Amino acid sequence: MIGPTGCLTMDKPLAKNNNNAGAVEQDKQNCMKLNAGTPYFDGGLIRMNSTGTFYYMNTRNNNFSNRGQKGSIAIVPLLPSWALALVLVGAGAFVLAGGVAGLMMYAKSHPHSGIAETFSKM
Questions:
Q1: At what angle do helices 114-121 and 81-109 cross, to 10 degrees?
Q2: How far apart are CA 87 and CA 74, in angstroms?
Q3: For the chain, N or C: smaller number of CB within 10 Å?
Q4: What's the pTM?
Q5: CA torsion through residues 114, 116, 121, 122, sign
Q6: What percent of the chain has pLDDT over 70?
Q7: Could you report how far apart the first and last alpha carbons of the chain are, in Å?
Q8: To 5 degrees, how large is the angle CA 111–CA 114–CA 115?
Q9: How far apart are CA 92 and CA 29, in angstroms?
Q10: Closest CA to 54 of 43, 66, 67, 65
Q11: Coil, strand or helix at 56
């Protein structure tokens, strides 16, 4: 990989490649085209903390041709709000049923308690 000091100025790639424009486009020292860069970029994992549509593009191949590499990533919520509400209501009902079952077990093991009298009236 060539650092910024190995780049040629605008006129030197033409002289180096005998005025061959195609060769200048591919010359590794033509840093105006990023030819010395690696073709791979590891951006790592990025956590998306907000929902929405995010756009990205590759500027290397954005030369007014059909090679443009553009895309979008849509981040949607894990559950829609109605489903989240349904899960919360179900969890509340589950906890309530567990509490009632626990009280019933206590009332059965303690038949003279106030809880047993309450359940016997139902």
A1: 110
A2: 24
A3: C
A4: 0.43
A5: positive
A6: 89
A7: 82
A8: 75
A9: 66
A10: 43
A11: strand
